[in-house]
């Protein structure tokens, strides 16, 4: 199998070379490459679709709700002890009646990704447009990459629009402008959210290539999403109970155990995202791993600078991007090997 | 592509082309040459491997063995260059339903790197040619089956291809629509000197428009040529069938007919009908015998082989020949 894939990729590379060399003449006088034509079309398809409108309305309402929640929490004096980074708290605190902004993004973000991707390829196949498209001079990988790019662009626009909307409304409500550092923290948080949604988007595109029925692919994506947000924690609890060392075990064993659990936990993209978000938006978080009392004793209780927070979440960024790339790789190989017949 | 060599320039050459799906050979050692400017019909029952052959020509699936050259290019190596110059209309073609006819065509045109203004102009001109000018700005979702097929034809032509490949273009359209579509295809191919390869299991339609046909059974090309030469091949298979009808069948005519040298068998139909298989054309002798035995001859004819017979004959014998 491994050898097979290698030879396939080699063949594709050779093919591209051959086409590229001979096709450069035509490419020179061409205005826009077919890749961007597909991206344009997909983008406008998404914007016109009911699905997107409904999703947007849902997320928009959630955001407005979370602002009210945050603002009433701040008014009610539920602020964290220090007034540093007050602005960031619009995103992180809630008055208890309505979840905060981060929770909404964690919860609804994957849903948006799945909704934009679950029928990307199989609907084209079922409508009979895929074979027509594939008989045009475009690369197969360009097609799935264009689908992904268009949706990701849309996700970027939506997430940044919402993030800035919340920030703007927060500015109105509390009348306290963000510092540059806070702005950058929000910016990186939004970038992280785009990556996170991008992962789910790619996963659902993968399923849309694998499954011929849109419903099957949507259900599989949703099942995986629910597994990671709900059941994964339960499974981890079970494992944790099973392998927990006794209370009189040595420090090293307890640390080892804690690290194993953390490692298992981080296999879930939802966990990666929420850890990274917490670090970015709550500068007081100094470490994500287990630490001893001595370490706390020696530490000075002060917020981390932005650079250090970024350093702390760098592995999380990398992990999310890697998961996305792996999904894309699998989709690519699968799609390359599929035979394109009309409506089958 | 020079006028001199145009007469017999091969545009599609298949040599020993084979596609295996597991143990099953969908296409089995296929040899076929199609010349520039001709209308070629690929004829065969469902599942004969027609679509698979077409997919291999376009590089949409890879042959297990053998080679294909389309416009002198190898589809597995240079699929993009071939797709720039070859238009393919799949069977059961699909469009973006919530877009207008023009939008769909412009999208295809732009995928072929045609600038927007020219794409729009070409789309409208083609829609006029295929008779969809009024529906140009309607959403494709409202189109009937026949309109879709015509739109498909416009879609194929918008890149100004040298070859168009139509997979079952007449599937599911009413007879009048079929006639119009086929007329359109032949007219377009004559006007623009486009090579047309069309696959179908409808022999009559193929008969109407194709210069040459290839008969395809179980992945093999069992006969290829124009319809006349195919029926001659059938005749050369040995026998001539004469059909005759009498008002009533006189006693003893059977024996009398069998007595004629060269008659192989006499098959009585209902009433006064019969068909006589002979090794040579004995129509005149049979007529004489019939009249001579006191029968009143109503009709007599030597059966001409149409594509129908060719089809049946070959498809029945397909397995035996294939083995």
Strand content of chain B: 25-35%
Biggest pleated sheet of chain B: 6 strands, mixed
Radius of gyration of chain A: 23 Å
As an assembly, this protein is: heterodimer
What's the CATH class label of the largest domain in chain B?
Alpha Beta
Basic shape of chain A: globular
What is the helix/strand order of chain A? Answer: HHHHHHHHHHHHHH
CATH architecture of the largest domain in chain B: 3-Layer(aba) Sandwich
Query: Could you state the order of secondary-structure elements of chain B as H and E?
Result: EEEHEHEHHHEHEHEEHEHEEHEH
User: Low-confidence stretches of chain B at least 5 residues in length (pLDDT < 50)?
Assistant: 1-6, 318-323
- Number-wise, the strands of chain B total 13
State the share of residues found in helices of chain A, binned by percent. over 70%
SS-based class of chain A: mainly alpha
- Let me know the number of strands of chain A: 0
**Overall morphology of chain B:** elongated
What report would you give on this structure?
The complex is a heterodimer of chains A (344) and B (323). Chain A is mainly α and 344 residues long. Chain A has one domain (33-337). In chain A, 76% of the residues lie in helices and 0% in strands. Chain A has helices spanning 2-28, 34-48, 50-75, 89-92, 101-117, 122-127, 129-134, 140-174, 180-210, 214-243, 251-265, 269-281, 293-298, 306-337. In chain A, helix 3 packs parallel to helix 8 and helix 8 runs antiparallel to helix 9. With 323 residues, chain B is of the alpha/beta class. Chain B has two domains: 4-225, Rossmann fold, CATH 3.40.50; 236-305, 2-Layer Sandwich (Alpha-Beta Plaits). Chain B is built from eleven helices and 13 strands. Chain B has helices spanning 50-57, 79-85, 101-111, 116-129, 145-157, 175-192, 203-209, 227-236, 253-259, 283-292, 307-322; strands at 10-21, 24-35, 39-43, 65-70, 86-89, 163-167, 195-200, 212-217, 220-225, 240-246, 263-268, 273-278, 297-302. In chain B, the strands form three sheets. Chain B has a six-stranded mixed beta sheet, with helices on both faces. A four-stranded antiparallel beta sheet of chain B has the order 11-12-10-13, with helices on one face. In chain B, strand 6 (163-167), helix 6 and strand 7 (195-200) form a beta-alpha-beta unit. In chain B, helix 5 (145-157) packs parallel to helix 6 (175-192). The two termini of chain B are 40 Å apart. Mean pLDDT of chain B is 83; it is low at 1-6 and 318-323. The chains are: A mainly alpha (344), B alpha/beta (323). At the A-B interface, helix 1, helix 2 and helix 7 of A face helix 2, strand 5 and helix 3 of B.
